[in-house]
Amino acid sequence: MNSNTFGNAFCLTTFGESHGPAVGGIIDGCPAGITIDYSLIMNELKRRKPGQNAIMSMRKEPDEVEFLSGLFEGKTTGAPIAFVIRNKDAKSSDYDNVKDVFRPSHADFTYQMKYGIRDYRGGGRASARTLMPCVVAGAIAKQILEKQNVKIISSVVKIGQKTCQDGFSMKEIEEILSEYKNNNDTVGAVVHCEIQNVPIGLGEPAFCKFHAVLAQAMMNINAAKGFEIGEGFHSAEMCGSECNDLFVNENGRVKASANHSGGVLGGITNGENVSFNVAFKPIPTIMCPQKTVDIQGNEVEYCIEGRHDVCVVPRVLPVVEAMAAMVTLDFLMMK
Q1: Alpha helices of the chain — where are they, by DSSP H?
Q2: Could you tell me how many helices (H) and strands (E) the chain has, helices first?
Q3: Which of 135, 215, 305, 312 is the most exposed, fewest CB within 10 Å of its CB?
Q4: What angle do CA 211, 5, 80 make, to 5 degrees?
Q5: pTM for the full model?
Q6: Is the CA virtual torsion 17, 20, 23, 25 positive or negative?
Protein backbone atom coordinates (compact mmCIF):
# COMPACT_ATOMS: atom_id res chain seq x y z
CA MET A 1 0.00 0.00 0.00
CA ASN A 2 1.61 3.22 -1.22
CA SER A 3 0.83 6.93 -0.81
CA ASN A 4 0.70 7.23 2.96
CA THR A 5 2.70 10.49 2.92
CA PHE A 6 1.28 13.97 2.30
CA GLY A 7 3.23 17.16 1.67
CA ASN A 8 6.58 18.25 0.21
CA ALA A 9 8.47 20.49 2.66
CA PHE A 10 6.16 19.82 5.62
CA CYS A 11 5.44 16.09 5.28
CA LEU A 12 3.20 13.76 7.25
CA THR A 13 3.34 9.97 6.98
CA THR A 14 0.53 8.17 8.79
CA PHE A 15 0.05 4.59 9.97
CA GLY A 16 -2.45 2.48 11.86
CA GLU A 17 -5.94 1.01 11.63
CA SER A 18 -9.21 1.74 13.40
CA HIS A 19 -9.07 -1.37 15.62
CA GLY A 20 -5.30 -1.86 15.72
CA PRO A 21 -3.14 -0.98 18.74
CA ALA A 22 -2.77 2.65 17.66
CA VAL A 23 -2.79 5.22 14.89
CA GLY A 24 0.05 7.66 14.49
CA GLY A 25 2.36 9.59 12.26
CA ILE A 26 5.77 11.02 11.52
CA ILE A 27 6.12 14.71 10.63
CA ASP A 28 9.23 15.44 8.60
CA GLY A 29 10.45 18.95 7.81
CA CYS A 30 8.98 20.80 10.78
CA PRO A 31 11.20 23.83 11.51
CA ALA A 32 13.30 23.74 14.68
CA GLY A 33 12.76 25.99 17.67
CA ILE A 34 8.97 26.19 17.46
CA THR A 35 7.27 26.19 20.87
CA ILE A 36 4.42 23.70 20.78
CA ASP A 37 1.33 24.14 22.94
CA TYR A 38 0.23 20.61 23.78
CA SER A 39 -3.15 21.80 25.07
CA LEU A 40 -3.99 23.25 21.67
CA ILE A 41 -3.27 19.89 20.03
CA MET A 42 -5.47 18.12 22.57
CA ASN A 43 -8.24 20.66 21.96
CA GLU A 44 -8.21 19.86 18.23
CA LEU A 45 -8.34 16.13 18.98
CA LYS A 46 -11.22 16.75 21.38
CA ARG A 47 -13.18 18.47 18.60
CA ARG A 48 -12.89 15.29 16.56
CA LYS A 49 -13.40 12.92 19.51
CA PRO A 50 -16.34 10.46 19.42
CA GLY A 51 -18.88 9.93 22.19
CA GLN A 52 -19.50 13.60 23.02
CA ASN A 53 -23.26 13.52 22.40
CA ALA A 54 -26.08 11.29 21.17
CA ILE A 55 -25.52 11.99 17.45
CA MET A 56 -21.91 10.75 17.52
CA SER A 57 -20.41 7.30 17.75
CA MET A 58 -20.44 6.17 21.38
CA ARG A 59 -16.89 4.83 21.10
CA LYS A 60 -15.13 6.12 24.24
CA GLU A 61 -11.54 6.95 23.40
CA PRO A 62 -9.20 9.21 25.42
CA ASP A 63 -7.51 10.23 22.14
CA GLU A 64 -4.35 11.40 23.89
CA VAL A 65 -1.29 11.91 21.71
CA GLU A 66 2.08 10.58 22.85
CA PHE A 67 5.13 12.17 21.23
CA LEU A 68 8.10 9.85 20.76
CA SER A 69 10.65 12.15 19.12
CA GLY A 70 11.28 15.58 17.65
CA LEU A 71 10.37 17.62 20.74
CA PHE A 72 12.61 18.73 23.60
CA GLU A 73 11.54 20.95 26.46
CA GLY A 74 8.39 21.88 24.57
CA LYS A 75 10.14 22.93 21.37
CA THR A 76 10.68 21.28 18.00
CA THR A 77 14.25 20.14 17.37
CA GLY A 78 14.06 19.86 13.59
CA ALA A 79 14.16 16.06 13.85
CA PRO A 80 11.20 13.95 12.69
CA ILE A 81 8.26 14.27 15.06
CA ALA A 82 6.91 10.78 15.74
CA PHE A 83 3.71 10.29 17.70
CA VAL A 84 1.04 7.70 18.49
CA ILE A 85 -2.58 7.76 19.64
CA ARG A 86 -3.55 4.51 21.34
CA ASN A 87 -6.85 2.77 20.53
CA LYS A 88 -8.43 1.94 23.88
CA ASP A 89 -12.11 1.19 23.17
CA ALA A 90 -12.24 -0.87 19.98
CA LYS A 91 -15.03 -3.47 19.97
CA SER A 92 -14.03 -5.66 17.05
CA SER A 93 -16.76 -8.21 17.77
CA ASP A 94 -19.28 -5.67 16.44
CA TYR A 95 -17.92 -6.45 12.98
CA ASP A 96 -17.92 -10.26 13.11
CA ASN A 97 -21.10 -10.45 11.04
CA VAL A 98 -19.60 -8.41 8.19
CA LYS A 99 -16.15 -9.96 7.90
CA ASP A 100 -17.19 -11.78 4.71
CA VAL A 101 -19.67 -9.16 3.49
CA PHE A 102 -19.11 -6.19 1.19
CA ARG A 103 -20.90 -3.32 2.92
CA PRO A 104 -22.61 -0.97 0.42
CA SER A 105 -20.62 2.21 -0.34
CA HIS A 106 -17.73 1.16 1.93
CA ALA A 107 -14.18 0.34 0.84
CA ASP A 108 -14.61 -3.37 1.63
CA PHE A 109 -15.00 -4.44 -2.00
CA THR A 110 -12.21 -2.33 -3.50
CA TYR A 111 -9.72 -3.21 -0.75
CA GLN A 112 -10.46 -6.93 -1.17
CA MET A 113 -10.13 -6.76 -4.96
CA LYS A 114 -6.92 -4.71 -4.89
CA TYR A 115 -5.02 -6.35 -2.00
CA GLY A 116 -6.67 -9.75 -1.62
CA ILE A 117 -6.97 -9.09 2.11
CA ARG A 118 -8.63 -6.47 4.31
CA ASP A 119 -9.04 -5.56 7.94
CA TYR A 120 -12.82 -5.61 8.34
CA ARG A 121 -12.73 -4.31 11.94
CA GLY A 122 -14.16 -0.82 11.76
CA GLY A 123 -12.93 -0.47 8.20
CA GLY A 124 -9.26 -0.92 9.13
CA ARG A 125 -7.08 1.48 7.19
CA ALA A 126 -10.15 2.88 5.40
CA SER A 127 -11.60 4.18 8.68
CA ALA A 128 -11.92 7.91 9.30
CA ARG A 129 -10.04 7.28 12.55
CA THR A 130 -6.84 6.99 10.52
CA LEU A 131 -7.12 10.75 9.86
CA MET A 132 -6.40 11.57 13.51
CA PRO A 133 -2.66 11.95 12.79
CA CYS A 134 -3.65 14.66 10.31
CA VAL A 135 -5.40 16.53 13.14
CA VAL A 136 -2.20 16.38 15.22
CA ALA A 137 0.01 17.56 12.34
CA GLY A 138 -2.56 20.19 11.41
CA ALA A 139 -2.62 21.49 14.99
CA ILE A 140 1.16 21.94 14.85
CA ALA A 141 0.90 23.58 11.42
CA LYS A 142 -1.78 25.93 12.78
CA GLN A 143 0.51 27.07 15.59
CA ILE A 144 3.26 27.86 13.09
CA LEU A 145 0.83 29.67 10.78
CA GLU A 146 -0.55 31.80 13.57
CA LYS A 147 2.90 33.32 13.98
CA GLN A 148 2.35 34.60 10.42
CA ASN A 149 -1.19 35.74 11.35
CA VAL A 150 -2.71 33.04 9.12
CA LYS A 151 -5.88 31.62 10.63
CA ILE A 152 -8.27 28.89 9.53
CA ILE A 153 -11.95 28.69 10.41
CA SER A 154 -14.73 26.35 9.26
CA SER A 155 -18.47 25.94 9.64
CA VAL A 156 -21.30 23.64 8.58
CA VAL A 157 -23.41 25.41 5.94
CA LYS A 158 -25.58 22.54 4.72
CA ILE A 159 -27.03 19.34 6.20
CA GLY A 160 -29.21 17.38 3.83
CA GLN A 161 -31.67 19.87 2.33
CA LYS A 162 -31.22 22.45 5.08
CA THR A 163 -28.81 25.34 4.56
CA CYS A 164 -27.40 28.15 6.69
CA GLN A 165 -25.03 30.57 4.98
CA ASP A 166 -23.57 31.75 8.28
CA GLY A 167 -23.10 28.21 9.59
CA PHE A 168 -25.25 26.09 11.89
CA SER A 169 -24.73 26.26 15.64
CA MET A 170 -23.86 23.06 17.49
CA LYS A 171 -27.36 22.98 18.96
CA GLU A 172 -28.91 23.26 15.50
CA ILE A 173 -26.65 20.51 14.17
CA GLU A 174 -27.66 18.18 17.00
CA GLU A 175 -31.37 18.89 16.45
CA ILE A 176 -31.17 18.23 12.70
CA LEU A 177 -29.12 15.06 13.05
CA SER A 178 -31.39 13.70 15.77
CA GLU A 179 -34.16 13.42 13.16
CA TYR A 180 -32.02 11.16 11.00
CA LYS A 181 -30.81 9.12 13.96
CA ASN A 182 -34.40 8.45 15.02
CA ASN A 183 -35.06 7.12 11.51
CA ASN A 184 -31.97 4.88 11.62
CA ASP A 185 -30.52 6.83 8.72
CA THR A 186 -27.58 9.11 7.94
CA VAL A 187 -27.18 12.34 5.98
CA GLY A 188 -24.61 14.30 3.99
CA ALA A 189 -23.30 17.81 4.65
CA VAL A 190 -21.29 20.71 3.24
CA VAL A 191 -18.44 22.36 5.17
CA HIS A 192 -17.29 25.89 4.41
CA CYS A 193 -13.72 26.84 5.25
CA GLU A 194 -11.65 30.01 5.02
CA ILE A 195 -7.89 30.46 5.24
CA GLN A 196 -7.48 34.05 6.39
CA ASN A 197 -4.58 36.44 5.83
CA VAL A 198 -2.95 34.24 3.19
CA PRO A 199 0.07 36.00 1.65
CA ILE A 200 0.28 36.66 -2.07
CA GLY A 201 2.28 34.20 -4.15
CA LEU A 202 1.59 30.70 -2.80
CA GLY A 203 1.23 28.08 -5.51
CA GLU A 204 2.75 27.31 -8.87
CA PRO A 205 1.09 27.99 -12.24
CA ALA A 206 1.09 24.58 -13.92
CA PHE A 207 0.71 21.34 -11.96
CA CYS A 208 1.07 22.60 -8.40
CA LYS A 209 -1.71 25.17 -8.22
CA PHE A 210 -2.63 26.14 -4.69
CA HIS A 211 -6.29 25.28 -5.10
CA ALA A 212 -5.48 22.02 -6.88
CA VAL A 213 -3.33 20.78 -4.00
CA LEU A 214 -5.97 22.04 -1.57
CA ALA A 215 -8.61 20.07 -3.47
CA GLN A 216 -6.45 16.95 -3.33
CA ALA A 217 -6.08 17.37 0.42
CA MET A 218 -9.83 17.74 0.95
CA MET A 219 -10.73 14.86 -1.34
CA ASN A 220 -8.41 12.62 0.70
CA ILE A 221 -10.77 13.06 3.67
CA ASN A 222 -13.10 10.11 4.11
CA ALA A 223 -16.59 10.62 2.61
CA ALA A 224 -15.56 13.78 0.68
CA LYS A 225 -17.33 13.87 -2.69
CA GLY A 226 -17.05 17.44 -3.88
CA PHE A 227 -14.78 20.49 -3.72
CA GLU A 228 -15.33 24.04 -4.90
CA ILE A 229 -13.35 27.21 -4.41
CA GLY A 230 -14.84 30.69 -4.52
CA GLU A 231 -18.11 30.65 -6.43
CA GLY A 232 -17.36 27.09 -7.51
CA PHE A 233 -20.18 25.47 -9.45
CA HIS A 234 -22.26 28.62 -9.12
CA SER A 235 -19.74 30.39 -11.38
CA ALA A 236 -21.03 28.25 -14.28
CA GLU A 237 -24.34 30.13 -13.96
CA MET A 238 -22.73 33.59 -13.89
CA CYS A 239 -21.71 36.11 -16.55
CA GLY A 240 -18.13 37.35 -16.70
CA SER A 241 -19.37 40.78 -15.68
CA GLU A 242 -20.73 39.22 -12.49
CA CYS A 243 -17.89 36.82 -11.73
CA ASN A 244 -14.83 38.98 -12.38
CA ASP A 245 -12.99 40.30 -9.33
CA LEU A 246 -12.19 43.90 -10.24
CA PHE A 247 -8.91 45.34 -8.99
CA VAL A 248 -8.86 48.52 -6.94
CA ASN A 249 -6.19 50.63 -5.25
CA GLU A 250 -6.97 50.73 -1.56
CA ASN A 251 -4.61 53.06 0.31
CA GLY A 252 -1.75 52.19 -2.00
CA ARG A 253 -2.44 48.46 -1.98
CA VAL A 254 -3.79 46.66 -5.04
CA LYS A 255 -6.56 44.27 -4.07
CA ALA A 256 -9.70 42.65 -5.43
CA SER A 257 -13.02 44.41 -4.92
CA ALA A 258 -14.73 41.00 -4.47
CA ASN A 259 -13.60 37.43 -3.93
CA HIS A 260 -15.53 35.32 -6.43
CA SER A 261 -12.28 33.51 -7.26
CA GLY A 262 -11.86 32.34 -3.68
CA GLY A 263 -8.43 33.90 -3.16
CA VAL A 264 -6.59 32.17 -6.00
CA LEU A 265 -5.80 33.40 -9.53
CA GLY A 266 -3.83 31.28 -11.99
CA GLY A 267 -3.18 28.77 -9.23
CA ILE A 268 -1.47 31.44 -7.09
CA THR A 269 -2.90 33.08 -3.98
CA ASN A 270 -3.80 36.74 -4.55
CA GLY A 271 -3.82 37.97 -0.94
CA GLU A 272 -7.56 37.54 -0.36
CA ASN A 273 -8.94 34.91 2.00
CA VAL A 274 -8.94 31.45 0.45
CA SER A 275 -12.60 30.41 0.59
CA PHE A 276 -13.82 26.91 -0.30
CA ASN A 277 -16.52 24.30 0.31
CA VAL A 278 -16.27 20.54 0.73
CA ALA A 279 -19.26 18.25 0.21
CA PHE A 280 -19.48 15.01 2.18
CA LYS A 281 -21.72 12.07 1.35
CA PRO A 282 -23.93 10.41 3.98
CA ILE A 283 -22.08 7.92 6.18
CA PRO A 284 -22.80 4.56 4.49
CA THR A 285 -23.29 2.68 7.76
CA ILE A 286 -27.04 2.75 8.41
CA MET A 287 -28.89 0.85 11.13
CA CYS A 288 -31.33 -1.05 8.94
CA PRO A 289 -31.18 -4.19 6.76
CA GLN A 290 -29.42 -3.83 3.39
CA LYS A 291 -28.89 -6.19 0.50
CA THR A 292 -25.37 -6.87 -0.69
CA VAL A 293 -22.98 -9.63 -1.80
CA ASP A 294 -20.55 -11.67 0.28
CA ILE A 295 -16.96 -12.58 -0.50
CA GLN A 296 -18.12 -15.77 -2.29
CA GLY A 297 -20.47 -13.79 -4.53
CA ASN A 298 -23.68 -14.82 -2.77
CA GLU A 299 -26.44 -12.26 -2.48
CA VAL A 300 -27.16 -11.70 1.21
CA GLU A 301 -28.96 -9.34 3.57
CA TYR A 302 -27.21 -7.92 6.60
CA CYS A 303 -27.68 -5.32 9.30
CA ILE A 304 -24.69 -3.59 10.83
CA GLU A 305 -24.24 -3.34 14.58
CA GLY A 306 -21.96 -1.16 16.69
CA ARG A 307 -21.41 2.55 17.32
CA HIS A 308 -21.57 4.95 14.41
CA ASP A 309 -22.06 8.62 13.55
CA VAL A 310 -25.16 10.03 11.87
CA CYS A 311 -23.12 12.50 9.79
CA VAL A 312 -19.47 13.45 9.32
CA VAL A 313 -20.18 16.85 10.90
CA PRO A 314 -19.30 18.32 13.27
CA ARG A 315 -16.34 15.94 13.85
CA VAL A 316 -14.91 16.50 10.37
CA LEU A 317 -14.38 20.25 10.92
CA PRO A 318 -10.97 19.91 12.64
CA VAL A 319 -9.90 17.51 9.88
CA VAL A 320 -10.78 20.02 7.13
CA GLU A 321 -8.93 22.75 9.01
CA ALA A 322 -5.92 20.48 9.62
CA MET A 323 -5.57 19.58 5.94
CA ALA A 324 -5.90 23.26 4.97
CA ALA A 325 -3.23 24.18 7.52
CA MET A 326 -0.78 21.56 6.24
CA VAL A 327 -1.28 22.66 2.63
CA THR A 328 -0.78 26.34 3.48
CA LEU A 329 2.31 25.73 5.62
CA ASP A 330 3.77 23.42 2.98
CA PHE A 331 3.46 26.14 0.34
CA LEU A 332 4.87 28.79 2.68
CA MET A 333 7.91 26.65 3.38
CA MET A 334 8.45 25.90 -0.31
CA LYS A 335 8.21 29.61 -1.10
Answers
A1: 38-48, 108-115, 132-146, 170-182, 210-219, 240-243, 317-334
A2: 7, 19
A3: 305
A4: 115
A5: 0.95
A6: negative
